[in-house]
Structures are given as C-alpha cells and as structure tokens.
Amino acid sequence: MPSAQVRGVNINYKILGNSGPWVALSPGGRRDITGIELLAGKVAEKGCRVVIFDRRNTGASDVVIDGNDSEYEIWADDIYELLNQLGALPAIVGGSSSGCRTALLFALRHPESARALLLWRVTGGRFACERLAEEYYGQFITAARAGGMAAVCNMEHWRERIAARPENRNALMTMDPARFIAVMSRWREYFLKGADLPVIGATEADLRSIKVPACIVPGNDLTHGRQTGETLGHLLQTSEVHVLFPKHYDEPLSPREEWDEKAGEMASLFSDFLKRSNIT
After folding, report:
1. Residue 6's closest CA among 21, 19, 22, 24?
2. What is the pLDDT of residue 36?
C-alpha cells in the first residue's frame, strides 16, 4: 500500500477506481483504512476514483502529537495536501462521524477545493461531545500523568499504532509526557467547546457559509442523533437529507453491521446525488 509524505508525516493511503470524479472518504472514530474500505469500494464501482487513507495518529500512518490547530483541522489540511499531491483537487470529500467533522472542516478551510460533501453519522450534542472527548483525549492524558509515555504505549489504541508502524513506538517514547499532555489537553478543550454547537467543530455561521452541495445520512444513536443530521441539512446552503436508518438506538453507538449492510444503498444514493448535482 503506498505512503505519501504529507506535511512531514507519512500517510498510508489507497486509491479505488480508475476514472471519474475524485472522492476522499474518512472513517469514523480512530478507525484505520479498513473502516471505510467497504463503502469506498461501492462508491468506486459507481464510477469514482476514491482515496482512502489512515489519518495521522491512526492506522499505519505516523503518530505525531503536535500542532497548534485542533486535530480535526490538522487532518483536514493533511487531506488537502494529500489530494494536491495526487492531482485530485478539487474533490468530493466525505466521511462518517469524525470523518464527517473532518470533511466539514476541509470545506471551511479549503472552500475552493471542495466540490461536494458526502456526510453520514453526523456528531453533535453534549453527550457525544463529552463522551468522545474522554475517548479520544482524556483517557490518554490520564495514562500519561500516571505512568508517562510507557503507559500511553501500553494502551490498546497506541499498541495498534505501534504494531502497524513500529517506528511509532520511538515517536511516542521520546516525547516529553508534559508536551503530550499539553497537546492532548488543547485538543480536548477544542472538542469540549463544541458541546452546544449544532455540529461538533463548526458554528452555525460556519455551516451556513458552506456553498457546495451536501448529501447527509443522519445517524441513529445517542452519539449520532438523527436530529443532528437534520439540523446540519437545514443550515447548509444546498443539501439533501436521507434517513436510511429510522430505528433509533438508545445507546452510545448503533450496530456497525447495520451500516455495513447498507453500503451498497448508500453508494447508490451518493452516486445519484452527484449526478443530479452535475458532478461527474
């Protein structure tokens, strides 16, 4: 699988499809490339060239805990540079959950490079914000304070990053724990500030400023509520909202298998949307 040097970071990526409009898709959470590959393959079968990748600090890409921006802004800028290197700009950008947040920030930070947005499992609300801030940052801060970087390396997420790319162990172990805690704390605070926003990471004014067409599939659980996706659809200038999962789960997450089973239907929905939006 190829790797690109993106702003000094090794990014693992893969291209599916040989022709058609360029699409960049990101999975939810901190999942690696396999978390999006099924749907990406279905989208490629509809006549697109789809770029999927391991964001920094995920998958087999480099671990780099640094930067003055939020982690999602950093990811958005990484996507821009990767697509620029591939000659894939402007592109259709999308994703699930954290990938959805990253896509929205891509459109806000690089509006001239976004052709359309494909967004599903939109994240918002205080429950989601507080839960994910702990999952993505809080637990790692606690570990670093208690046992330094050795304790961090022993956590499941970072063990997997080291297994996927052994160099990541040295990157973590040579980092000053105080610096790690400071960066993670800043990223957590950015996240927590989104508790009362319509979507984590973007204000109402931000969302109203996005001009490109968007296709939205709301989620169906406490972290990705249907209302959050529908609210996003009302705020974006040009959007469609399609409820494919009417059953709500009163749980933090709905079954991932249900979403995998809908991959073909979602790819058809996105393909039809792009055609109707004259993006071919």
Report:
1. 24
2. 96
What CATH class does 3-124+202-276 carry? alpha beta
State residue 257's pLDDT score: 93
Q: Is 201 left (phi over 0), alpha (psi -120 to 50) or beta?
A: left
Helices (H), 26-119: 34-45, 71-85, 98-109
Q: How far is CA 238 from CA 95, 98, 212, 214, 253, in A?
A: 18, 22, 7, 6, 28
Neighbours of 130 (CB within 10 A): 14
Strand partners, 49: 22
Q: Give the model confidence (pLDDT) of 169-228 as tens digits.
A: 999 999 999 999 999 999 999 999 989 999 999 999 999 999 999 999 999 999 999 999
Domain ranges of the chain: 3-124+202-276, 129-190
The C-alpha atoms of residue 121 and residue 96 are separated, in whole angstroms, by: 5
Q: How many CB atoms lie within 10 A of CB 219?
A: 27
